[in-house]
Amino acid sequence: MTAPSIVAGATKGVDGANTTGTTVTTPTYNTGDAIFVPVASDPVSQTFAITGFSALYAPTDIPTTTPTATAGLLYKENASSEPGSYTLTVGTSERQAWQAFAVTNYGGIGAQGTNNSGSSATAQIPAITTTAANSLIVAVIFADQIGTPFGTATGYTKLDEISGTSAASVAVYYQTVATPQTIAAENVSMTNEQWLAVVFEIKAKASGLIRPNKMDGLGTFFKGMDS
Question: How far, CA to CA in Å, does 28 sit from each of 55, 99, 160, 174?
Answer without folding.
Answer: 21, 12, 15, 18
